[in-house]
Amino acid sequence: xxxxxxxxxxxxxxxxxxxxxxxxxxxxxxxxxxxxxxxxxxxxxxxxxxxxxxxxxxxxxxxxxxxxxxxxxxxxxxxxxxxxxxxxxxxxxxxxxxxxxxxxxxxxxxxxxxxxxxxxxxxxxxxxxxxxxxxxxxxxxxxxxxxxxxxxxxxxxxxxxxxxxxxxxxxxxxxxxxxxxxxxxxxxxxxxxxxxxxxxxxxxxxxxxxxxxxxxxxxxxxxxxxxxxxxxxxxxxxxxxxxxxxxxxxxxxxxxxxxxxxxxxxxxxxxxxxxxxxxxxxxxxxxxxxxxxxxxxxxxxxxxxxxxx
Length: 309
Known about the structure:
GO terms for molecular function: DNA-binding transcription factor activity; transcription cis-regulatory region binding. By secondary structure, this protein is α/β, with parallel strands linked by helices. Among the domains are: 6-85, Winged helix-like DNA-binding domain superfamily/Winged helix DNA-binding domain (Arc Repressor Mutant, subunit A), CATH 1.10.10.10; 172-269, 3-Layer(aba) Sandwich (D-Maltodextrin-Binding Protein, domain 2). It has ten helices and ten strands. The chain has helices at 6-18, 21-28, 32-46, 62-88, 104-119, 132-140, 182-188, 206-218, 231-238, 283-298; strands at 51-54, 57-60, 94-100, 123-129, 146-152, 163-176, 197-200, 223-227, 245-248, 268-276. The strands form three sheets. The chain has a six-stranded mixed sheet, with helices on both faces. A two-stranded antiparallel ribbon has the order 1-2. It has a two-stranded parallel sheet with strand order 7-8. α1 (6-18) crosses α3, α2 (21-28) packs across α3 and α5 crosses α10 (283-298). The chain starts with 5 loop residues before the first helix and ends in an 11-residue tail after the last helix. 34% of the residues are buried.
């Protein structure tokens, strides 16, 4: 039997966890046919019948389930080896790869790089931008070590088999509106802006859904006339004083903070750092997580913490 490929074993583990080839393909950002082809190669490499095929359904045989359990051990051992090697070093050093969503770069990843470049110059942080699903995919593929993600209060929780999630910040969505309208909103609520045009994100984006849900609770359907790609650009248009918007708090630059209508709840999202379970003991990863927690605690102006806490 030839040496088994770790990436194919990851696909097998994913199939056991998720149940369908389609779900595996979505997690790995490849086609279903590519998943099926790689699993067939794995079956050929082992010389065993790993799958039961019934139409388009692909199930695991007893041999397949046995290999899945060993695959979990092998893939976990790779992370254990990386953590053990890191622990053998006299100092925190080496490289840690971090994937983050767009706003997570200025809010978390850039401060992380800045702090560690001063405090731990022998540890290099390599950044990669990716949306939340993409960051988790890179983490599962062992292409990054830490994923910084967010999930809104209206989104389903992720299935994080084999991963550990640490909350960094509960970030509120905020309402931006011309200051002349703030008294009206504070008196009548969000419905006071029902007759205005709105700016938000692309259709079905988190910005779009946050606005629709908040408006629905206030009893109206917003008239959206502008759709933009990022929250920062939405803030820029809201700054004209022509249209209101609902955006995450950290997307609002200091010079536009006066547009925020305080005490109008419009939802929130939770920012988290995610790592593979078996890398938590790695001193490099542990330091990254501690530092991110400190950054998260200070993000909305809370009291300063030390990395050692």
